[in-house]
Amino acid sequence: DSHKHKDKYKDKEHKHKDHKKDKEREKSKYSNRYDVTVIHAYGRHIGADSSSSDLFGDMVQITNALVLALCTAVLVACVGMLVYILPSLCFFIPFRWEEERYTDGVKWKFLEHKGPVFAPPYEPLPSNVKFYYDGKYMKLSPGAEEVATFFAKMLDHEYTTKDVFRKNFFKDWRKEMTSEEKSKLTDLNKCDFSEMSEYFKAQSEARKAMTKEEKLKIKMENERILQEYGFCVMDNHKERIANFRIEPPGLFRGRGDHPKMGMLKRRIRPEDIIINCSKDSKHPKPPPGTKWKEVRHDNKVTWLVSWTENIQGSIKYIMLNPSSRIKGEKDWQKYEMARRLKKCVDRIRAQYREDWKSKEMRIRQRAVALYFIDKLALRAGNEKEEGETADTVGCCSLRVEHLTLHQEMDGQEYVVEFDFLGKDSIRYYNKVPVEKRVFKNLQLFMEDKEPEDDLFDRLNTSILNKHLQELMDGLTAKVFRTYNASITLQQQLNELTTSEDNVPAKILSYNRANRAVAILCNHQRAPPKTFEKSMQNLQTKIDAKKEQLADAKRELKSAKADAKVRRDEKSKKAVESKKKAVQRIEEQLMKLEVQATDREENKQIALGTSKLNYLDPRISVAWCKKLGVPIEKIYNKTQREKFAWAIDMAEKDYEF
DNA sequence: TCCAATACTTAGGACTACAGCA
DNA sequence: TGCTGTAGTCCTAAGTATTGGA
């Protein structure tokens, strides 16, 4: 098995002629045999028993049994035999690794890393870049100047014109000023940052215009930092760290109408940092002359570094990359949980439908909310502190004002019109015909309430999740999103694809299936700024290709006529080559048209989020294997790394 | 039971390198 | 070879869920 992997990785290396970086990464991964073999080990097991709900547990038992049996056999057999069996014993080493499935929330036994990379220190502006107040030049103190540059860098953004942004910024900026500056600078509108802004624009231009050598030098330096700080050792695995760079200071820009937009996000110093690593590891050193806030050894959490951010007072963490064992296993468990829901979802649906009739209001509310979460893939909707964040809601926190009930609409009965801002202030707008009973319940919930009152006043996420926990062990509201997303992908793929299609058509179908999920989960994006233009360009290309095809057909026709008269080998060959040309152009045209359709349909829909977080990757892997689509067409390199476990374990007959 | 703290997943947008084209 | 559009990557905000203590 290990050899098979070796070959696979070698192949990859040949294909990726590019960049030392990639090769280095592959190599470092490969040099650690456990990274490769362990993933394979659980892959094998899944294949053997995919129906088991507690695979890790089973694996441990089976492995234990196997090892025990082997040991007994070895004892009974003569000593000479031992040497003979030894290689096969080695085969179990990776399994034994997996045996270390920790209990009681223990996440690791050994953790060593180099700590975070801090943001580069502030570089004062050159003296010719000036700041003006009320038309007069004014030299700022370094502290005030730094914060001023944050604002100057954002000048082109619309939000620097917003009142809230300006007010928050000015308030925090003043805190960084000397008392003299504070007394002079009293009106943001009189501040002129334009020279600073120009300076930064010029810098970014200069960066773009750098020579190849200069760019390479920067790249090399980044690579060096990555090699030094970008990896850690967790239980004998060398693992990639996700965000080993500390967030640089700047102005906070929340999403949507955020009351804290424009506030100063302060610089993080070593004194703010908590390091988490194992006692027996080489502890990371703070920069010379500084100290960490704390070094702790908590192996019940997965983070390596944490600090408290000053805007919301929340904790930020440095954690491992999605390709790591600890994240991969969790991801796998997430999909296994969703598959368990698949087995009992009918029962749960019957239950909540029954609950629509309950005598108790709280149960009716719970049942209707769950229906929305299931049918519409809404998020749970935790309570939020008012005034601290943008006003967004999920299912449990819906307010009366977010729904409009229509007895009849567009020829359909009992239509509920949803209109609210969800996570990241993305608008959810949907008109949904519901069952009469749900409709009547909603009327009841909305009776005698103000628009700003909670729709489900007897419900919150913790009540809902407690109930779900009783219906199925480990079930929470978000599992429904995962389940419905994955099952939709599987159904859509079955419906849309046929083995007769060519690869581009299959990929179009895959994207359509992916799109169905993205629509269900309301994953939107702002249309790319260049969308219209690029669409036009594509259309021009299509038109040109059509003309080219017409020409080629004409040429074919005349070649055929020519061949009919001449009846020699040469003209026959000419016909053949013209035929091929027509075929080739037809294929090219079709490819372009597919591309256009795909792009148009994708204008406002983001596929990435569902692909990365909601779709069981084994469905996609199996689909690729079954239909002969190379996995590289569906997953890019990073995605393949994240889903290595799935690529390894799913066969073509995998079913979610 | 409630609330705050904590840990972890999910999310869209900005930036950038590079593929593909003329 | 130079240009441009976009895929891939980075960044960090904003959710969900659990826990532990009052």
UniProtKB/TrEMBL annotation:
Location (main, coarse): nucleus
Compartments where found: Nucleus
A cellular component annotation (GO) from this entry: chromosome
Region Disordered: start-end pairs: 1-29
Keywords: Biological rhythms, Coiled coil, DNA-binding, Isomerase, Membrane, Nucleus, Topoisomerase, Transmembrane, Transmembrane helix
Biased composition (Basic residues): 1-20
Signal sequence region: none
Domain DNA topoisomerase I eukaryotic-type, chain residue ranges per copy: 251-628
Coiled coil regions in record: 535-602
SMART domains, A to Z: TOPEUc
EC assignment: 5.6.2.1
Membrane-spanning residues: 65-86
InterPro entries the record matches: DNA_brk_join_enz (IPR011010), DNA_topo_DNA_db_N_dom1 (IPR013034), DNA_topo_DNA_db_N_dom2 (IPR013030), TopoI (IPR001631), TopoI_C_dom (IPR025834), TopoI_cat_a-hlx-sub_euk (IPR014711), TopoI_cat_a/b-sub_euk (IPR014727), TopoI_cat_euk (IPR013500)
Domain of life, source organism: Eukaryota
Family membership: Belongs to the type IB topoisomerase family.
Function: Releases the supercoiling and torsional tension of DNA introduced during the DNA replication and transcription by transiently cleaving and rejoining one strand of the DNA duplex. Introduces a single-strand break via transesterification at the specific target site 5'-[CT]CCTTp site in duplex DNA. The scissile phosphodiester is attacked by the catalytic tyrosine of the enzyme, resulting in the formation of a DNA-(3'-phosphotyrosyl)-enzyme intermediate and the expulsion of a 5'-OH DNA strand. The free DNA strand then undergoes passage around the unbroken strand thus removing DNA supercoils.
Name under which the protein is recorded: DNA topoisomerase I
